[in-house]
Amino acid sequence: MIQWRRGVVVEARARWAGAVEYAVRVDPRDGGGEGLVVRALGYVDVVGTLGPGTDVLLNTTALERGLGTGGFAIVVAAPDALPDPVDVTSVAGHLVKARYTPSQTMVLGVDEQDSEHHGLLADADDLDEMPVVVADLHSALPAIIAGIRESDPELRVAYVMTDGGALPIDFSRTVAGLRESGWLAASVTVGQSFGGDLEAVNVHTGLLAARHVVGADLVVVSQGPGNLGTGTRWGFSGTSAGEAVNAAGTLGGRPVCSLRISEADPRERHRGVSHHSHTAYGRVALVPAAVAVPVLDGEVGERVLHEARELCASTGGRLALHEVACDGLDAALRAAPVPLRTMGRGYDDDRAGFLGAAVAGRYAARLLVGGG
C-alpha cells in the first residue's frame, strides 16, 4: 500500500547531491491536522527543483509507520510544476531501473551498446586481484575508507552500491560527502539502484567497471541506506554481502569480509559478531575470502575474536581469519569528512562497530602496500 498525502512546499531546508529536503505543509483535508509540516525529500531528476508554494503529492507510508528509514515523506510529483519534457528517443541508454514501478527511470549502463565503455567491458572478465571489501551496512562505508586511507591516502577507491536498501544513491549524504571530500573516486549503482557516477546491470559488471573504467585500486561494496531485517536467520537484505563476495572471488578479485560488529546494539543477535555476518559470509558466500577481525580490548574483544573464529571454522577453511591491530584508527575515524552513524549510534556509542569496518579497509589496503 501507499499512503498518499497532498501538501504545499514551505521552503527548501537542505541540499546534497541530487536531493533536496523540503518542509511541506500537509493538506488538512488528508487528515494531517491544521498546520502539520513534515520533512519531505525530493529528487531533482524526478521532480525538478521546487519553490515555496508548489503543490506536491507525497508518499508518507514509511514516515507515518515510524520505520527506521522513514524519516522523510517522499515527493512523488508536483503536478503543476512538472520538469520540462524531453525526447526520450534521443537519450543514450536503455537500461531501466526501479523497473515497472511508477518511478522507473532510464539510464545509460556503463557496459551497454550506447556507452563509450562498451568495447572496454565487452570481454572484461578479471579484476586483476583487486581487493574488494564487502560490508552488510551502508554505514560501514566511511569507516572502511578511513582504514584504507590510514594505510595509503593515495589509493583510488570506488563504491559499488547494491539494491538491498535505498535505490537512489542521492539519498545518501554519506556518499555525497565522501565524493565532495575526495575520499571516494566514483560510485557505481548496480541492480535496481541508480544515480551513481556509473550505472551497471549487476554486481559483476559494477566491479568490472570500477576496476577498468574508474581505475580503482580497491572497491567497497554494500547496500544503500536502509537495511531491511525481520529478526529471522535468513530474512535480511544483507545476504547480498555474501553474493558480493562470490562475485569478487569469481572475477579474480580478493574479497575481504567486513564484519558487522556491535558492543551497544540492544538486540542480542547483533552483539559481538552479528548473525548477519554469520549467515552472509558463512552460508551465502562460497568462495575463499579474508575476514578482518579488530584486536579489541576487554570482554568485547574476546567475544568478537571467539565468534569470528567460530565463523571461519564453520566454513572448513574457506574463510581465513586475520587479526588486525586498531592502533591509529581512532584518529583516522574521527577525521572522516562525514558523520559516523550506524543504527542511530555514533562513534563513541559503538566504537567496536566502526573499528570492525575500519580494520577491513586497513587489511585490504595493506594487500596493496605490502603489509598484508
Write the layout of secondary structure elements.
Layout: E1 4-16, E2 19-26, E3 37-43, H1 44-47, E4 55-59, H2 61-65, E5 73-77, E6 95-97, E7 105-107, H3 118-121, E8 131-134, H4 141-151, E9 157-162, H5 173-181, E10 186-189, E11 198-199, H6 203-212, E12 218-223, H7 240-250, E13 254-258, E14 261-262, E15 272-273, H8 275-284, E16 289-294, H9 298-313, E17 319-324, H10 329-334, E18 341-342, E19 345-346, H11 351-369
Parallel strand pairs: 3-5, 8-12, 8-13, 9-10, 9-12, 10-11, 13-16, 16-17
Antiparallel strand pairs: 1-2, 1-4, 2-3, 4-5, 6-7, 14-15, 18-19
Helix pairs in contact: 4-11, 7-8
Order of strands side by side in the largest beta sheet? 11-10-9-12-8-13-16-17
Question: Distance between termini?
Answer: 50 Å
Low-confidence stretches: none
Mean pLDDT, all residues: 93
Total number of domains: 2
Count the beta strands: 19
Give the overall silhouette: globular
**How does CATH name the architecture of the largest domain?**
3-Layer(aba) Sandwich
CATH class of the largest domain: Alpha Beta
Helix content: 25-40%
The H-and-E topology, N to C, reads as EEEHEHEEEHEHEHEEHEHEEEHEHEHEEH
Gyration radius from CA atoms, angstroms: 21 Å
Helix/sheet category: alpha/beta
The name CATH uses for the topology of the largest domain is: Rossmann fold
Overall description:
With about 375 residues, the chain is an alpha/beta fold. The protein folds into 2 domains: about 5-75, OB fold (Dihydrolipoamide Acetyltransferase, E2P) (Beta Barrel), CATH 2.40.50.220; about 120-370, Rossmann fold, CATH 3.40.50. Helix content is about 30%, strand content about 25%. It contains 11 helices and 19 strands. It has an 8-stranded parallel β-sheet, sandwiched between helices. β9, α5 and β10 (about 185-190) form a beta-alpha-beta unit. α4 packs across α11. The longest helix has 19 residues, at about 350-370. The relative contact order is 0.13.
